[in-house]
Amino acid sequence: MAATKKFMYVNRHAPYGTVYALEGLEVVLVGAAFEQDVSMAFIGDGVFQLKKGQDTSDSDMKNFSPTYNALGDYEVNKLYVEHESLDERGLGEDDLMELTWEDEDDDWAEKPSIHIISRAQLADLLEEQDVILHF
């Protein structure tokens, strides 16, 4: 049996104003439904996709941020947020949604899905991937 390929979805766009963020999230959910080894990276303005308290009521855009809560159900629990991108935008870990997943190997313990990593650590992670898709 062939080894599972690693798929990294790199999100670099703000959540609203373009279709990149929503389409990227939809592609991740489809890939995960087909049991791909999926991870996501949030860099640049992409870090705003995980910001808590998103409100689109003053726009014609649908707020799709609650969909990120479903990622754990699809076993997408490797969300990497670049520390430098947060800093450059005046954000910190406390500004991000609290996304978790349940680890069945650890008596269904809830564990955080978001991991804050440095730019250098992200570069190393990207080197380990078989497929990298940018949104």
Strand content: 15-25%
- State the helical fraction: 10-25%
CATH topology: Hypothetical Protein Ychn, Chain: A
Per CATH, which architecture? 3-Layer(aba) Sandwich
- The figure for the number of domains is 1
Distance between the termini: 31 Å
Mind summarizing the main beta sheet? Answer: 5 strands, parallel
Q: What value does the Rg take, in angstroms?
A: 15 Å
* Strand ordering within the main sheet: 6-3-2-1-7
Number of helices: 3
Shape: globular
Point out poorly predicted stretches. none
Count the strands? Answer: 7
**Mean pLDDT value:** 94
Tell me the series of helices and strands, N- to C-terminal.
EHEEHEEEHE
Q: What structural category characterises the helix and strand content?
A: alpha/beta
CATH superfamily: DsrEFH-like
What's the level 1 CATH class? Alpha Beta
Tell me what you see in this structure.
The protein is built from three helices and seven strands, in the order βαββαβββαβ. With 135 residues, the chain is α/β, with parallel strands linked by helices. It has a single domain, classed as Hypothetical Protein Ychn, Chain: A, CATH 3.40.1260. A five-stranded parallel beta sheet has the order 6-3-2-1-7. Strands 4-5 form a two-stranded antiparallel ribbon. The chain is globular.
Itemize the secondary structure elements and their pairings:
Elements: E1 6-11, H1 20-33, E2 37-42, E3 79-82, H2 83-88, E4 100-103, E5 109-112, E6 114-117, H3 119-127, E7 131-134
